[in-house]
């Protein structure tokens, strides 16, 4: 199959998945008790006020019609207007998405740069003190809730040792956020910690599996030294399963950003989602979920393509 | 390409003295190899033979210093005067790939799947010689040409998965000879390959060894390969060498009782004139076939990637007879067996089971039909549920197809089935993993026969077993067939086994039937070139006869092309 065909098919699949996500989110939204009207107008609203609101928002029409209307406006880039912020949702998201992307991508890069060598090193030193120490640390990091870890970081590296600011850089534009890199350190660490924990485990398992493969024995029988085998052969082979996991990890990263942004008061999507959820600002919630699902689907797509680059068998079909 | 000369006199290139290997396991130390001494001289091939668990592969790995981490070696193994036992990583890396090389059993996994084959060969060159990357690459291409990879310039940039099993083994051999080693260790180098490919690889190894006077340590369980290749033989039993000698002496006049028993269990391909006494397979014709495939085609996949696994295949198996299904890997023999089982629906043609068209049968009726078939598959480890006891494994078909039975009746039927396959009653409550390979395969057989089927489908039932175990399993099937009268569809790549075991044989090639007939005539006086080539490629465990067969085969393959 040509790469172009493959891409076209995968993109089509991605679009379908996103459509299904919009249906699911739409249904969930309407299954809420009282519906959006109750949320916006408050508990004291009269039945007449609610009916009026529902009519204005088109909420009294049949669900399929509402859904189709929603899709149509979506296609024109209109995600609706926030109930509470009185701004188009698309504007809000365009403002904040790049900042969240910076945070999550930085966390992911830092996380992977630490996790991959750690996992490999653990595999090579399997069942030695180093392996046990890192395993313990990983489990602790994985079991620690992000908000707790964040608080701990603030306490240690902002209060006790005044190295970094406790508050993330503020500002409306990406440039303003990036102009204060010291402020990004703690949020990125908080976001990367669980990534290191999870991916060092994957990398350790994948490396161990590959170290016991026959091709390692063949390379040793040819006089290739251990270090060269590890980096020339085992490393690449171990990356394949890790890359596949990376795609599925995108929503987890966004979920983490939700907490991290709230904790460090970082003006990204997570904070937007958080406040929208508290005020039942459904257009914003729906917009955020949509963006996150698109990000997930794009993430898996990128992971699949990356896998094709690393592993010729994926492109070559059956072995 | 002349026959290799006799063993040269000289200092041995591999000298193993009183080698011992112990594996540390959870349940204590296991001595896998004890007091093994052997020597390989330049230009000589020593075959190390024995059944699984005899420690022959462990000796080979110990000589390379490639033992796994939980193994401890004692005694001495020197390669060209350098001690290997207890040597440092650096010393070993200096020896491996330069002075001593190894060819492994499983070409499918022996190569790094993500590295181009040319680079893998070049890596071995650059491990030991200071040559530029470009020169190493050029040399790798030459090596690939030398081992018979067609169009090596282009193929050098192929990935292993783009090559056939035989070609992959050629790449492994190219890596092994890259630095002209003085010693080549080959651990079951052809076991995973078809007979015709096996013959080619053996020819290649022989030629390379003869060209450069390399000593070869050949580890194998196949006595035919030994007869074809070795100058001397060492026979291993439970970690010790019980007999060593020239190949003709050991294979034709074995001294040790175990060697005699081992050779007695090897199925021998009969290659002379047809034997009139042999049953001719026509006995059952006239009765209605138990299973009848008519014009069956099977296509997997769609569009351009579609693979035609079977093409217009017609096979009938009559009550009481055994039909052997033979062919190389990919010939469609297992697919045909699956069609007979109703597990694969044919794309065209009809399948009748016990006189009923499978496609017309409703699902309930189809299930009843399936109760009349027993199945035994190749891998006795994977085909039994590890969490069931032996008795539960055997009872399961009764639970599904004979729901009316009381628990007591069921127990009796299970005990009966275990007795029939000659398994001690005491094993009934054990887990399958606690049993040996042969015992497990007999459990599969008991499970297949507990419903008293009219048809037994056996897909390579003895391929994973040692020859002596293979013999007992085949004997059990033959006896039970006489007693119960079921028909048997027997899939195997081993022509000697089929010749002994089946009355009729169907030869498949690329999904088509090449020829079929009684084993007595088809496997002795084949009508097609393909079957002739298949038969000629089977090495027989008689060095004198095999030398003649090899010469005939090479003359036949050289004749038409010259």
UniProtKB/TrEMBL annotation, chain A:
Give the protein name, as stated in the record. Answer: Diguanylate cyclase
Query: What family is reported?
Result: Belongs to the binding-protein-dependent transport system permease family.
Q: Which domain of life is it from?
A: Bacteria
Q: Name one GO cellular component term.
A: plasma membrane
Name the UniProt key words of this record, in alphabetical order: Cell membrane, Membrane, Transmembrane, Transmembrane helix, Transport
Keyword tRNA processing applies? no
Matching entries from SUPFAM superfamilies are given as: MetI-like
Checking Gene3D superfamilies in the record gives: MetI-like
Q: One Pfam family this chain carries? A: BPD_transp_1
Q: Name one GO biological process term.
A: transmembrane transport
Q: Which CDD domains match?
A: TM_PBP2 (cd06261)
- Give the record's membrane topology: Multi-pass membrane protein
Q: Could you tell me where this protein is found in the cell?
A: Cell membrane
Q: Which chain regions cross the lipid bilayer?
A: 12-32, 101-120, 132-161, 181-199, 246-264, 284-303
Q: Answer yes or no on keyword Transmembrane helix.
A: yes
UniProtKB/TrEMBL annotation, chain B:
Which PANTHER family does the UniProt entry name for this protein? DIPEPTIDE TRANSPORT ATP-BINDING PROTEIN DPPD, OLIGOPEPTIDE TRANSPORT ATP-BINDING PROTEIN APPD
Instruction: Name the SUPFAM superfamilies for this protein.
Output: P-loop containing nucleoside triphosphate hydrolases (SSF52540)
* Pfam families noted in UniProt: ABC_tran, oligo_HPY
Cite the PROSITE patterns for this sequence: ABC_TRANSPORTER_1, ABC_TRANSPORTER_2
Subcellular localization is given as: Cell membrane
Q: Which residues form a coiled coil?
A: none
Q: Per UniProt, which keywords does this protein have? A: ATP-binding, Cell membrane, Membrane, Nucleotide-binding, Transport
Superkingdom of the source species: Bacteria
Residue ranges constituting the ABC transporter domain according to the UniProt record? 14-263, 293-535
Does Protein biosynthesis show up as a keyword for this record? Answer: no
- Name it: Glutathione ABC transporter ATP-binding protein
Q: Which GO terms describe its biological process?
A: peptide transport
- Topology term for the membrane: Peripheral membrane protein
Annotated family: Belongs to the ABC transporter superfamily.
Name a single GO cellular component. Answer: plasma membrane
MF GO annotations: ATP binding; ATP hydrolysis activity
InterPro entries, per database record: AAA+_ATPase, ABC_Ni/Peptide_Import, ABC_transporter-like_ATP-bd, ABC_transporter-like_CS, Oligopep_ABC_C, P-loop_NTPase
Traced from the root, the source organism's taxonomic lineage reads: Bacteria, Bacillati, Actinomycetota, Actinomycetes, Micromonosporales
